[in-house]
Specification:
By secondary structure, the protein is an alpha+beta fold. It has a single domain, classed as YefM-like fold, CATH 3.40.1620.10. The protein has a three-stranded mixed sheet with strand order 1-2-3. The chain is elongated and about 65 Å long. It starts with a strand and ends in a 23-residue tail after the last helix.
């Protein structure tokens, strides 16, 4: 990962963004301390995507064991006229 001093990152923001898109994450430092990372939206979404699936969601639900009865209708589908 390339590092940019804050002032350089501000002056060359387009270049920082382009490198984040093509090369990978870009670190910005302030007073010599790594402060922020510029990443693509695709990488951001990958990092923030929930790791749980629908089954895990219902298992961990605070409503589990609350007595709510959810039953699936096993009858045939309703008729629709087109």
């Amino acid at each position: 990962m390339e590092q940019w001093q804050l002032q350089d990152a501000k002056n060359k923001f387009s270049e920082v963004v382009e490198k984040a898109l093509t090369v990978g994450p870009q670190i910005v430092t302030r007073r010599g301390v790594e402060t922020v990372v510029v990443i693509s939206v695709e990488q951001y979404r990958e990092l923030t995507r929930p790791e749980t699936n629908i089954a895990d969601f219902f298992i961990k639900s605070p409503l589990r064991g609350s007595g709510i009865k959810l039953e699936r209708d096993t009858g045939s589908a309703r008729e629709v006229t087109f």
